[in-house]
Design goal:
9 strands, globular, about 375 residues, single chain, binds magnesium ion, binds thiamine diphosphate, Rossmann fold, alpha/beta, 13 helices, two-stranded antiparallel sheet
Length: about 375
């Protein structure tokens, strides 16, 4: 993405939520933006948000960034096997978490820790999962970072790319059939849109028109592959929705105000019975794909500094300054959060890490997967000396 691709902040129109998909096809090719480079808000997509809510979103982004950095350090210290960060794209989860209702369901990928934190998850619970210790809600059976939180409307993360998208659509179809006033939000990466599951999800969304938001997080990379590989001959990822007759928005994913407004538009539309929306959030994966990846081998080190949509945290801080929330206040919040993350990490490590302390009992590995355990697992359970 270059500066030339940018639509100015405030430039995109905001249609009514019952608009026909065919009447807003151009929104799949532009870029809905509210915040300009000076942090000023413009245009019809300015959401009605209090300063306190914006500070909460800033806090979620600070927490996610500090959390991610701490877990990557833990991986380097050999205390966990694997770590994935979402640096540069925290605004998407942190903001959509505020838009979705308490009974809605999010179907995330591994890069939406900010959604879970934005829904109020205690970082300690997440750390216990990363360390696979005795307090891990997944009982040590999942890859590090594959969280689950039914009570917070956060579906279990699957490492099999894009499988969550048909699930999101199916969940929304069930909500519609039951007449429940809820919506689903599915997240998928740019690279993963190439999976067949994504197209199955779009087909079912198109046919049954359930209350679902299909969010594509275009962070410019799928590991070392540029986003244009999965995009193929299409100009944008949002454009994918047009072929399925779905309204499709392309949104500045580093602009908290634009994310909030576009997601609210799609959720209102869904709850009013007008069906699904596809949203492409344009952002940048500022860190490595995972702890197993070295991005210096395939991209310039200063690319994030040059990214035209900037850093979402810096952009929200700038906007908040215009609302009277000073840089000093933001720094103080950031420092408090970093101290809190260190304290939570001490607590988690005291319970256990990958090679210290208490671990979940092996017997738990066999439980809670099937209602009735299949024969091959019964056999393996015996082989493990558990029966
Ligand atoms: C079905 C499947 N194929 C391949 C992989 C290996 N894999 C894990 S992440 C990834 C890249 C995904 O890129 P993208 O969808 O853009 O998401 P991002 O990592 O950028 O958030 C690949 C190929 C996988 N986990 N599942
Ligand atoms: Mg990607």
């Amino acid at each position: 993405m270059t500066v030339a691709d940018l639509q100015p902040a405030g430039d995109a129109y905001r249609p009514p939520t019952d608009v026909a998909a065919r009447d807003i096809m151009d929104l799949a090719f532009g870029l809905i933006r509210v915040l300009d480079d000076e942090g000023m808000a413009h245009g019809p997509w300015i959401p009605n948000l209090s300063r306190d809510t914006l500070v909460e979103i800033l806090g979620t982004m600070f927490t996610t960034r500090a959390y991610d950095a701490r877990m990557m350090k833990a991986q380097r210290q050999g205390k966990t096997s694997f770590s994935m960060r979402s640096r540069g794209e925290e605004a998407i989860g942190a903001t959509t978490a505020k838009v979705m209702g308490p009974d809605d369901m999010c179907f995330p990928t591994y890069r939406q820790a900010s959604y879970l934190i934005g829904r109020g998850q205690d970082p300690l619970v997440m750390m216990n999962q990363v360390y696979g210790n005795a307090a891990d809600l997944n009982r040590g059976t999942q890859i590090s970072g594959m969280y689950t939180a039914a009570d917070l409307g956060f579906f279990s993360i699957s490492g099999n790319l894009a499988t969550q998208m048909p699930q999101a659509v199916g969940w929304a179809m069930a909500a519609k059939a039951k007449g429940e006033p809820t919506a689903a939000l599915g997240f998928v990466g740019d690279g993963s849109t190439a999976e067949g599951d994504m197209h199955a999800a779009l087909t079912f969304a198109s046919t049954y028109r359930p209350p679902v938001i299909l969010a594509i997080v275009n962070n410019q990379y799928a590991i070392s592959t540029d986003e244009e590989v999965a995009r193929g001959s299409a100009q944008t990822f949002a454009q994918r929705g047009i072929g399925y007759g779905l309204p499709s928005l392309r949104v500045d994913g580093n602009d908290v105000l634009a994310i909030h407004s576009a997601t609210s538009w799609a959720r209102d539309r869904a709850l009013d019975g007008h069906g699904p929306t596809v949203i492409e959030f344009v952002t940048y994966r500022a860190s490595a794909h995972s702890s197993s990846d070295d991005p210096t081998r395939y991209r310039p080190e200063d690319e994030f500094d040059e990214f035209p949509l900037g850093d979402p945290i810096k952009r929200l801080r700038l906007h908040l300054q215009h609302l009277g929330y000073t840089n000093d206040q933001a720094n103080e919040l950031d420092t408090t959060i970093r101290v809190m993350i260190e304290a939570k990490n001490d607590e988690a490590e005291a319970i256990g890490t990958i090679n210290t302390g208490e671990r979940p009992p092996l017997s738990k590995t066999f439980e809670l997967v099937y209602e009735t355990m299949p024969a091959h697992l019964v056999r393996q359970q015996k082989q493990a000396g558990l029966q």
